[in-house]
Amino acid sequence: LYVKRKDLNFDPNFKGPIHNRGCTDILCCILFILALLGYFAVGILAWSQGDPRKVIYPTDSRGQFCGQSGTNLEKKPLLFYFNILKCASPLVLLEFQCPTTQLCVESCPDRHLTLVKAKLGTKEDHDYYRRYCKEGVDFLCLSSLCSGLVIAMVVSLIFIVLLRFLAGIMVWVMIVLVILVIGYGIFHCYMEFASLKGEPGADVTIRDLGIQTDFSVYLQIRQTWLAFMIILAIVEVIIILLLIFLRKRLLIAIALIKEASRAIGHVMSSLFYPLLTFALLSVVITYWAITAVFLSTSNEQVYKVFNNSDCPYSRDTCDPATFNSSNVSAVCPDAECLFAFYGGETVYHRYLILFQFYNVFLFFWCANFVTALGQVTLSGAFASYYWAYKKPDDIPAYPIFSSLGRALRYHTGSLAFGSLILSLVQVIRVLLEYLDHKLKGANNKCAKFMLSCMKCCFWCLEKCIKFLNRNAYIMIAIYGKNFCTSAREAFFLLMRNIIRVAVLDKVTDFLLFLGKLLIVGIVGIFSFFFFSGRIRAVEDAAPSLNYYWVPILTVVVGSYLIAHGFFSVYAMCVDTLFLCFCEDLERNDGSTERPYFMSPELHEILSKVKKQEDEHDGVEQPDAVKQADEVKLQEEMPLHQQEDRDVQLKQETLLKQDNEEQEPLQPKTDKEEVKEEMEKKQEEEVHQNEVPEQNEKPEPEVENTSDEVKPAADVEAVKEEINEKKKDELKEINGPSAPQE
């Protein structure tokens, strides 16, 4: 993982996203185009065979449409079941039709046993029953829903703009507001829980209450508010603990968000690109839904024999026009020829299930392709900002349009390849969910366990593929290589910077998630007070609703999607800058010959992360990791610093050798030489006592003395010669301007 790519040498001409590139993954591009042509063919076939009136209008027992203009049932738009309890029969699962007579009527019966009981009730019961006897009003909350979604869009846009100019302050304000909003939710749940104390029926449990269509019934019991309070308290504690443990890394993540804000400030058109993605996804979803409706309504009317007694012709196919004159009515007098379901025996009807499967698969493929196109476009624009040495002068005039044009012209095949891999996993997950639905009534625990394990594994696989695809698209936008090469290079680049991924990328994603949570919380609280009629200033304008939780959930989900669309631009910007940041470190060293493309603020982030890596939990790293870090640090060091360090190491080596050579010479001159003189004198005295006649000859004595002194002189000469050599070597290293030793 510590081995860098071979093509990552310094390139003085590299200025960001490569313009001179070629088409990638051409085979996948051709396959995607053929699949789209087949998708259009399936849609045309379904539109020619299908009849959407079967979905729009109710159908009576003879397969006739209720309320259809131009027929005798034009003034009868409603469907009446004679015995609706028969719809609970298992025959519904076999024939997909309720086995009871169904008639088209002008209006529903205005008299009912429940209404009679209500009239006989007391005055206190009138308020309860009156809620269920009101006339329906269509699109009552439409204006309020639109207003809530517009408010969510405005709040998201204001938050993004403030992040551009006040990133540091807004992040801290966001953190504090998230804690306060969740804290207010806990307080509100406690107040509702305390106010229901002693109320009749408030102590009923949710299990005893069962499933109710009116959600407001659950809000009248204490256990509901207690559960909400516990859930919010757990979320609050988790967020606070995460903020405490990540307090040092939050500062670094905030600095990265500031850099992303500067990038978005220079590429302001990126904030509006999610609108194009939303429009393309709307087209894909609409085409899929219409095709699915036409496919499901392209069957023919099938009539079958229904009877209450034993009959040999039961559930056989019949024709209503000739049924009364057939033998079936003679053998089974109580038998009826009723409409059962839509089907057919033609070739088209046999492969109809395959067409539906193909429709679902192409829906996933096209939706993932649109998402991938947005990611490549945004990453290419932000990479143009990063690799501009003089910002903003070197940034292209229209980075979004330039990046979009490169993606569609050269990398349609790569985007289709990545989307295809993800779509296959998603289709497998859909099939597993279908099997799980079929096995709910079975008692095979082993099969359920294996199915649950497979669902978990494919869920993890889908998340991993999304992560790899996202980073692979960034590399495609920068270098213009095929999908597999880009995915491999992105993966190993992230593995070489795994600590930085944890410190910078994921902490920043957590802060952006808190921003989305804040917007959803603000809009959700406002919609709750508005639709429940608790705001006195707008109490008259608020609609009177029985199920006010439905528009609240609609506004909350819509506000989350809107906030996610805006914050996805920030998330893509952060991921792109982070990957370019890691590439910049491996390409350049910060010297004048190989300068960094990152801004000084981003370089400061690098210093902080490097410090945290060195002080990572105070744990001593293995020798192999230390050596790898030293090699990596040496590669990131500027060139002039490396030269100074080499000179210093060479000087220290020479001085160390000089000391080692001087150490054995010094003691020989002082102590050992005196000791040798004393021993020689003793030997001479012994020798004089044994041979007295030799004392008269002084020549040997003088020669011996000169021989003894000669080694000391030789040592001094050698020492001076060594010092002269060392001085010459130091002169060569330090140059002529170096100080003389």
TrEMBL record:
Bilayer-spanning residue ranges: 24-47, 139-163, 169-187, 225-246, 271-295, 360-388, 408-432, 510-535, 547-567
GO molecular function: antiporter activity
Pfam families noted in UniProt: Choline_transpo
GO CC terms: mitochondrial outer membrane; plasma membrane
Protein name: Choline transporter-like protein
Catalytic activity: choline(out) + n H(+)(in) = choline(in) + n H(+)(out); ethanolamine(out) + n H(+)(in) = ethanolamine(in) + n H(+)(out)
Family the entry assigns: Belongs to the CTL (choline transporter-like) family.
Topology of this chain in the membrane: Multi-pass membrane protein
Cited InterPro entries: Choline_transptr-like (IPR007603)
Segments of skewed composition (Basic and acidic residues): 668-700, 707-732
Source organism: Gouania willdenowi
Cellular localisation: Cell membrane; Mitochondrion outer membrane
Function: Choline transporter.
Alphabetic keyword roster: Antiport, Cell membrane, Glycoprotein, Membrane, Mitochondrion, Mitochondrion outer membrane, Phosphoprotein, Transmembrane, Transmembrane helix, Transport
Region (Disordered): 609-630, 654-741
Transit peptide found in the keyword field: no
